[in-house]
Amino acid sequence: MRVCSHRLYAVLLLAISLLQLVASFKSFQIRIPNGDSVPGVGHFLVEGTGARNQFGLDFAGAGLKWTEALCRSDSDGDGRTNGAELGDPDCVWKEHEIPRFNTSLSHPGICDPWDSPACQQRQQPGGLWASQGQWLAEVCRTGGLDCPALEEDGVKNLTVRFPSGSPVPTKETTYICMIFDIFELGLPRDQDFHLVAVTPALDNKDVLHHISLSACTGGKPYECGALAASACQEFLYVWTVGRDGECFNQQAGMRIGRNGYRTISLELHWNNPEGKAGLTDSSGLVLHYTPN
């Protein structure tokens, strides 16, 4: 079992997600004309979260406000101003007003025609993709997790997630953890199993930034730092926004059960920038395992 390689992979993935993924919130949509009509308006991901595209960077540079300068800029370099793409060609829209136009909208962060050579070759900020062509090819290809192991005989799953109605604090950033006995989740006690895949079980996507899974040496949710607990430092997996999960190499499957990991910790990173009260989240992960 190659635990060290999985730990290194998880640490690197967590570092990348924390450095490059910036949370997005639906409350920002009302600060942009027709912001709720253009999917992922300031981001690479259609979910409207994660790393910012050029329009998202320009919006942040304008103080997260719709200014005349931002309106008259052409963030995606396709010859149309941001205002023209979002239904405010004259740059007269104010927050809470109804935009003059709400049809024939386009994305201020995607160069159009998107499949033209010039737009395909257009460089993208942040280093995640070298060009618009690479970005769109990767985003559009996914139709779910490609994992043949999930179709094999004998593969079962169990879900580890926070209790229903778990309250999200009113502060902006919270790392919340919970430790689980894997046998109490339904795993048989009399043999070993190997994880073949992990997939997300998402509840409140508006506050969730990432989920990390670690192995430990019981329990109610508690706030934590970068590590779930001093006894839970064996990183197994990190989910970040836009990912469908992870299919593990058959030669490096992580052992759980009688002679493997028995106790695990789930860490959720919540973002609540407006300090809203009454929010809840019971997200978690689905662990797919096999006795083979």
Automatic annotation (TrEMBL):
Residues 1-24 form the signal peptide. It holds the Pfam family Temptin_C. InterPro entries: Cu2_ascorb_mOase_N, Cu2_ascorb_mOase_N_sf, PHM/PNGase_F_dom_sf, S-S_Temptin, Temptin-like. Residues 167-276 form the Copper type II ascorbate-dependent monooxygenase N-terminal domain. Residues 23-110 form the Temptin Cys/Cys disulfide domain. Keywords: Signal. One of its GO terms (molecular function) is copper ion binding. This is Temptin. It comes from Candidula unifasciata.
